[in-house]
Amino acid sequence: MGIKSFNPVTPARRQMTMDDKADITRDTPEKSLVRGLRKKSGRNNLGRLTSRFRGGGHPRSYRFIDFKRDKINIPAVVETIEYDPNRSGRIALVKYSDGERRYIVVPIGLKVGDKIIAADEAEIKPGNAMPLKNIPVGTVIHNVEMMPGRGGKIARSAGSFVQIMGKEGATVALKMTSGELRLISRECMATIGQVGNIEHENIVIGKAGRSRWMGRRPRNRAMAMNPVDHPMGGGEGKSKSGQHPMSPTGVKAKGFKTRNKNKLSNKYIISRRKTQQKGGTA
Question: Which residues face 43 on adjacent strands?
């Protein structure tokens, strides 16, 4: 992937950059692995708004991705590298030796024609998948399961990766890019390598309309609202006399921990991610 820039013929074009999609080998997705995607616009299963400022956007089709990698000991060949509008990384169409086709997330170094496999023991190369217990310490991995058989949940976006730091008993210690150390069952599957398209973070949106195409609606400032609409609204000026920033429901927005102290997975976190404090890092 490369970053494409433009001549500044308009104010929006001056800063805008785009993905040149030079690594894409096919424009149309595999029909058997695609379905229409219904808009949710920030609403939950009851139709109630749970995420504000979401809606609209360009129509998308959903590509079914094989996050489980459960075709064990069946080799596959990479046929195409494709764009997926639903994620920041690329996807690859792979054809297994039994004739079935599936999509997987593309790691760095995976090319058309490469052979991959999911097995209990396999070669340590990008695209191969195996249980954490059989992956050497220090290996960079992605698409990591949190529960065996439930599919990869960790490190799936562009440039993401996790590193194996150690093994003890029935668990494996993983270091996240955030700095967090977490224990995962040694039976969970993971894929070798770092997710590709690492230059995605360098893309500059450039104009408000492009955000609208992505389904992001304009966000109005709380300070500009009336008191009836937000706790931070109202007042004769731009100050709220030292009031702590908060959400519309009154939850403090800076430094207030919202994670449930009784969450079951807390016992699997060795050290939390680094957070910047006044006295340094914690």
Answer: 49
- Residue 84 DSSP one-character state: -
In this predicted model, what pLDDT tens digit does every residue of 34-60 receive, in sequence order? 999 998 999 999 999 999 999 999 999
Q: Collect all residues with Cβ–Cβ distance below 8 Å to 244 and sequence separation of at least 6.
A: 252, 253, 254
d(CA 101, CA 37): 21
Place of tokens 């400032």: 221
- Among 159, 157, 164, smallest CA distance to 132 is for 164
Confidence of residue 199 (pLDDT cuts 50, 70, 90): very high
226 part of a folded domain? no
- Give Cβ neighbours of residue 188 (< 8 Å, ≥ 6 apart): 131, 132, 144, 145, 146, 147, 148, 172
Q: Which amino acid is at 68?
A: K
Number of domains in the chain: 1
Residues 214, 217, 221: CA angle, nearest 5 degrees: 140
Report helix, strand or coil for 14: helix
Q: What is the pTM of this model?
A: 0.88
CATH number of the domain bearing residue 88: 2.40.50.140
Type of residue at 155: A
With H, G, I as helix, E, B as strand and everything else as coil, classify residue 198.
Answer: helix
